[in-house]
Amino acid sequence: MYANFSVSIIIPCYNSACTIRETIESVQAQSYKNWEMLICDDCSTDCSAEIIKEYCRKDCRIKYLKTEKPSGSPALPRNIAIDKAQGRYLAFLDSDDVWLPTKLEEQLKLIEEKRCPIVYSNYEKMDENGKRSNRIIYAPQEVTMRHFEMGNPLPCLTVLVDTHITGKFHFPNMHHEDCVAWIGLVQKFGKAYNTNTVAACYRVQKNSVSGNKLKILSWQWNVFRNVLHFSILKSIWCYVRYAYLGFIKSRK
């Protein structure tokens, strides 16, 4: 039945034993069923691998992959999974986040209607225990290159990419790898569109990489200067605006 997958779901995993079941089951609960899930384990030291393999045995759409050694970044696990993916569409989810049931159905309808390279959605924050907060993060209605002047407008956990337009691509081995990947795709293939629905829940964890605001600020400066190649003055202006918007977003 699932010999020709339409959507390949890319999930990097590292020590996610406490959350990976919820992540997997949120995909299994999708109203759209023609997908494969490729979970690439970055050499977890907890029982993540055992949990994933348990689901693999029960659902042939789920595949377990593993890095040769810990990479310390989601980029390599994602790239390994992308290389193995069979689907036309690539979707991305982290091992502590979840999708809402109509995520894929809504996005596939829009991406086919617009015939565009990327679609995405809004998302809701939840706490470490998975309790939804009703704190909605609204992405722009559409994304062009100018939106990257304010940071990363595309929430990775909601992005869907049509590889019939973009071909397969890889995430760069650098900080803010998802933002840099989206910049390359939008720059080359055109704007992305929002379904204007809430499609996923993002888990806010105190000790997560994304929770370290000072590190993220330095990474974003690198994007402005060395990826987008902005001048010093423009980079300073964008950096200050990014820091302010980040502060406002963190209060939501």
Descriptive overview:
The protein folds into two domains: 201 residues, Spore Coat Polysaccharide Biosynthesis Protein SpsA, Chain A (Alpha-Beta Complex); 41 residues. Strand 1, helix 1 and strand 2 form a beta-alpha-beta unit. 37% of the residues lie in helices and 23% in strands. It has 252 residues and is an alpha/beta fold. The chain contains eight helices and ten strands. It is globular, with a radius of gyration of 17 Å. Strands 1, 2, 3, 4, 5, 6, 7, 8, 9 and 10 form a ten-stranded mixed beta sheet that branches.
Write the layout of secondary structure elements.
Blueprint: E1 7-13, H1 20-28, E2 35-41, H2 48-58, E3 62-66, H3 75-84, E4 89-92, E5 98-99, H4 103-114, E6 118-126, E7 132-137, E8 142-143, E9 160-162, H5 163-166, H6 177-189, E10 192-203, H7 213-227, H8 232-250
